[in-house]
Design brief:
263 residues, alpha/beta, Rossmann fold, 7-stranded parallel sheet, 12% strand, globular
């Protein structure tokens, strides 16, 4: 078994399901002590039962700075080190911009963007000591945008810009910063998405149901961390074509997206 991860300590958010759960389980299997953070204690305990004693359960909300700081402190106090933060927690959106309450945008930004600032602020000095990793799950929607996801797209573009900036600021300190831009993944992203009034969308999008598995996505993420990649794109061909068009033929991409079903 590859020894790169053995003996390290990571904090993983959004660990109760989907990508975060798969990343936590794979890290634990590789000998990492994982502070797995999410709001739902029962699901975290189920993860620990499945993945074993390397999982350190932490119930918390990433929109609360105190909880983010406490997750970092738990990792350091328990193991004496912090080798990486994988910030996966997030919330999506399914609504037209003109119909959406402003508070919905605020809630999305708190979860998807400001939470990363909390982890950076409280975790950076510990990660500098280990010359470790700061990775965050953005989205292909952090690279280009589709309709009915304006708040989600904005938050992921903000996350992308923030990490691209701090990467340059801390590169000489030996810290690896990686942006993860998944395409469609079989998670509850659409089920938990916010609608115009802030209620849950509650439906599984067909595209997500046919996407990569969380395990496939986690494998790409861990490979990216081990090889200190700048960006990784766990996505299908369709989303990667969209990424290509967004760079080289954005008006063509607009025409494609207008005709596309986004739910």
């Amino acid at each position: 078994m590859n020894k790169f991860f053995k003996g390290k300590t990571f904090v993983v958010t959004g660990a109760s399901s989907g990508i975060g759960r798969a990343v936590s389980a794979r890290l634990a299997k590789r000998g990492v002590k994982v502070v797995s953070m999410a709001r739902t204690l029962k699901k975290l305990e189920a993860l620990k039962s499945q993945a074993g004693p390397n999982i350190i359960v932490f119930q918390g909300d990433v929109t609360r700075e105190d909880d983010c700081r406490s997750a970092i402190e738990l990792a350091v106090s328990t193991t004496g080190r912090l080798d990486g933060i994988i910030h996966n927690a997030g919330v999506s959106m399914r609504a037209l911009a003109e119909e959406t309450d402003i508070q919905v945008y605020r809630d999305i930004m708190e979860t998807n963007f400001f939470s990363m600032l909390y982890f950076f602020k409280h975790g950076l000095q510990h990660v500098i000591k280990t010359k470790g990793h700061i990775a965050a799950v953005s989205s292909m929607m952090g690279r280009y945008s589709t309709q009915e996801r304006s708040g989600y797209n904005a938050s992921k573009h903000a996350l992308q810009g923030y990490l691209n900036s701090v990467r340059l600021e801390i590169m000489k300190k030996g810290v690896h910063v990686m942006v993860i831009s998944p395409g469609f993944v079989q998670t509850e992203n659409s089920v938990n998405a916010l609608t115009a009034d802030g209620s849950r969308y509650g439906k599984m999008d067909r595209a997500l149901a046919g996407g990569l598995t969380p395990g496939q996505t986690a494998a790409v993420i861990l490979d990216g961390i081990e090889h200190r990649k700048r960006d990784v794109f766990p996505a299908g061909l369709k989303e990667k074509i969209g990424l290509f068009l967004s760079k080289w033929a954005p008006s063509v991409l607009d025409k494609v997206l207008i005709k596309s079903k986004v739910k």
